[in-house]
Amino acid sequence: MPIDFNALDSLVLSVCMDTFALGQDGNSSVVFNPIASQPGAPPYAGRGIWTVKPVTTFLEGQAPMSTSLYTLGLRLFDFTIPPIGGDQVTINGDVYTLDAFERDSADGISWTCKAAQPNADVTP
């Protein structure tokens, strides 16, 4: 029997987004700035599942280096024009740049987010 991947979206991904996504409850905000996907277009509100995963790697001489991997899971059906690498997203006031991505079989995408570089024209 063939798999209906559209059913996966309605049965799995949309339910997960409705349950866990930031940007839909009024207590959190997710704002996309489409500087790469739609240059000149204004920022717009959205939603996504935010994940912070601790990562430890070992350098030469077995010295550990710890960091965190930030990802934002999106449902592509939520976007007329989906974000692309280089777009920025503001999550609860912190600005990140969308970097690498991984798609899944239910039309979802998980973006690796990097802290955006501060604007050189802004003085503290």
What's the short story on this structure?
The protein has 124 residues and is mainly beta. The chain contains 1 helix and 7 strands, in the order αβββββββ. The protein has one domain (5-115): Thrombin, subunit H (Beta Barrel), CATH 2.40.10.
Q: Biggest sheet, strands in spatial order?
A: 2-1-5-6-7-4-3
Please report the total strand number as a whole number. 7
Termini separation: 61 Å
Strand count, sense and closure of the main sheet?
7 strands, antiparallel
Briefly note the CATH topology name. Answer: Thrombin, subunit H
* SS-based class: mainly beta
Number of domains: 1
Rg from alpha-carbon coordinates: 17 Å
Along the chain, the helix and strand elements come as: HEEEEEEE
Strand content: 35-45%
List keywords for this structure.
124 residues, mainly beta, 7-stranded antiparallel beta sheet, disordered C terminus, Thrombin, subunit H, 13% helix, 7 strands
Please tell me about this protein's structure.
This protein has one helix at 5-20, and strands at 30-33, 44-45, 49-58, 64-75, 88-91, 94-103, 108-115. With 124 residues, the chain is mainly beta. Strands 2-1-5-6-7-4-3 form a seven-stranded antiparallel beta sheet. The chain is globular and about 50 Å long. The model is unreliable at 120-124 (pLDDT under 50).
